[in-house]
Each structure stands twice: as structure tokens, then as C-alpha cells.
Amino acid sequence: MPGKLKYNPLTDIPDLTGKSIFITGGTGGLGAESALHLSKHNPSHIYISGRNAKNGEKIINAIKDTGSTTAVSFVSCDLSSLHAVKEASEQFLADTPRLDILMCNAGIMALAPGRTVDGYEVQFGTNHLGHALLIRNLLPLLEKTAREPGGDARIVLLSSSGHAMHPGKGIEFENLRTEQEFAFGGPWKRYGQSKLANLLYAQQLAARYPGITTVSVHPGVVPTGLADNLTLKDKIIVLALTHIAWWMVLRLEEGAYSQLWAATAEKGSVVSGEYYLPVGKNAQKGLVGRATDETLAERLWDWTQEVLREF
Predict the structure, then answer these.
(1) DSSP character for 251?
(2) For a tag site, which of 1, 95, 140, 286 has the least CB within 10 Å?
(3) Residue ranges of the domains in the chain?
(4) Which long-range contacts (CB under 8 A, 24 or more apart) does 93-97 make?
(5) What is the bridge-based pairing of β-strands 281-282 and 275-277?
(6) Domain 13-308, classified CATH 3.40.50.2300, yes or no
(7) Which residues of 193-227 are buried (b: 16+ CB within 10 A; e: fewer)?
(8) Cβ of 299: how many Cβ atoms within 10 Å?
(9) Which of 163, 214, 223, 173 is nearest to 193 (CA)?
(10) What was the pLDDT predicted at 261?
(11) Mean pLDDT, the chain cut into blocks of 10 residues (311 residues total)
(12) C-alpha pair distances (Å), 14 with each of 3, 37, 145, 156, 258
């Protein structure tokens, strides 16, 4: 089956010799695909995080089977637990002197109402807060790497065109420590809220840490495990709300192309703080409403830092 996207990771990803890469959700789906593609371009080390060590071992073995000499390590990390994220970041920092690419790939979508172990709405707590703590803890190492000769540190956050499904306020700070049971479309509003947070947080990171290139990307509509729990009705909603026809759904390996491009394309072609569609299409000017709300982005930043202070 021919690909739909004019991007070839074998030829478009440059040599990555010496680079250290951390991928959340690297044990399956787009994260695993990203690790497999990146390992073919000689990075020194790829760290894949997730909750399932057996799946991590499968990906590590799959990479070894390709003949790659890249070192690959599994880091146990449950993004829905801030204590687990703290432990994972400490483990990683003790193991490596540099970090060139942090790919915030992991996520959950359209789940039933629930809360994280820390008491936050489960999609927001996992998709945003868990990543925000990991980013905060790894920022000093990213900055150090960026300052080295030829340094080019990057943070890639997976957002989604589904960010537009957020509730009217964009982010409902006042009830983030509840299950947020909306009267209509609750799973999608909660998902949209978390993906809006990813997009806004990338903007804030870019403004506050200009030495690091930070972008948010939409991977496209891809048949990953994220959608396995959805009913047919909800799958149709995904396509309708993202304006995608069934024949435009990407293959799994193509879904990783957007984040691979953002992580490895020539530095001058990736504008920090902006939002990209597959592959490398700058969609920043097409953002509307809350996705361009700087006041909301700053409030999100301040709220997040306050929550993370004890960690």
C-alpha cells in the first residue's frame, strides 16, 4: 500500500550520531514506530518510557533485530502518577549526560470519567500534567545540551486537531480535580482540553526557553491503540470533528512522520512555539479561538508550575 505522505524517514531523517533521545509511550503505537525509525540513523541512545516492561523489551529486541547498534533502554513511567514521573526522570538523569530530543508522545483519548492517583481529571493529568513534570525536570539537561557546540535540543509535544473539541472556557481550571462529567460530549471535551493544553504549553515553553526548539504536532488520524476503546459512533465523531475522510486515515508508520520531522528536520525549518500538521505543514496561522489565547496560555503555565511545586 503506497504511503499518502511525501516523507521518507529512511532518507529524510539525517544522521543522528551522538544524540540522546527520550520518547514517552515508546513501548507501542507511534512512540514505538518513532523509536524504530530513529534507531536506523545512529543515535547514541534511545530511552523509551511506558508502563509495560514486556512491551518495552519487545521494542528493544525489534530494534536489535534490524541490526541497529543504537543503545535502547526502557524507563518505567506512568504519566498518570506524578510521583512515578518524578522517579522516572531521576532514573533517566542519573544515566545520561545529555538529551537532544524529548518526544512527548504518550497519551490517552476519550476515556470514561476518571481521575489520576493525584486526583486530577485523568486525560488532563496524563496528557498534560505528567508530561509537564517530566519536561520541567529534564529542562536543565536540555538547556545544557543546547549550549554545547552544534547543540540543537528539541521538545516535541503531540497535540491534535481534536484540541478544538475543548469546553467553552478552553481549560476549566476550577474543576480539574474532579471527573468533569459534562452533560454532552464529555470524553471529547476532556480530550480536547488536554490537547489544547499540550499546544498552549508548547507555546509557553518556546517563549520561556528560547534556546530549545519546542513545537506541537498533530500526527494525523492513525489506527493506534488510542482508538481501540472507541465505539463505531465515537470513531465516526473523530473523523467528522477533525474533517478527515476514511480514505485519508494514515497508516501507523505514517502517523509517526509528523513527530519524526519535528524532531529531526533542519533546525531552520522548524519554528519554535508553532503547531504543525503532517508532515511539516505549519498550521500556526490557522489556529483560532482558545488556541491563540495568550492569557489562557500564561494562566496554564502558572497553574501548572504551582501544581508541580511539591514534586
Answers:
(1) P
(2) 1
(3) 13-308
(4) 93/137, 93/138, 93/141, 95/47, 96/20, 96/45, 96/47, 96/141
(5) antiparallel
(6) no
(7) bbbbbbbbbbbbbbeebeebbbbbbbbbbbebebe
(8) 15
(9) 163
(10) 98
(11) 73 98 96 97 98 97 97 98 98 97 95 95 98 98 97 97 91 97 87 97 98 95 54 53 48 86 96 96 95 98 97 95
(12) 20, 11, 18, 17, 15
Tell me, what's the pLDDT at 234? 55
- In angstroms, rounded to a whole number, what is the distance separating the alpha carbons of residues 26 and 56? 7
3-class DSSP state of 166: coil
For residues 262 and 217, the answer to whether their CB atoms sit within 8 Å is yes
Instruction: Write down the pLDDT at residue 240.
Output: 52
Q: Which of 218, 197, 200, 193 is nearest to 282 (CA)?
A: 218
8 vs 208: CA distance, rounded Å: 33
> Residue 47 class from Cβ within 10 Å (0-12 exposed, 13-18 middle, 19+ buried)?
buried
DSSP 111: P
Which pLDDT score is estimated for 199? 98
From CA 146, how far away is CA 272, in angstroms rounded? 14
Q: Where are the beta strands (DSSP E) in the chain?
A: 20-24, 45-50, 71-76, 101-104, 154-158, 213-217, 275-277, 281-282
**Which residue in this structure is represented by grid cell 520518547?**
23
Supply the residues annotated as catalytic: 191, 195
Amino acid 184: pLDDT: 81
Residue written as cell 482508538? 227
Distance (Å, whole) CA 218 – CA 209:
22
- pTM for the whole structure: 0.91
pLDDT at residue 220, as a whole number: 81
Q: Which residues pair with 24 in a beta bridge?
A: 49
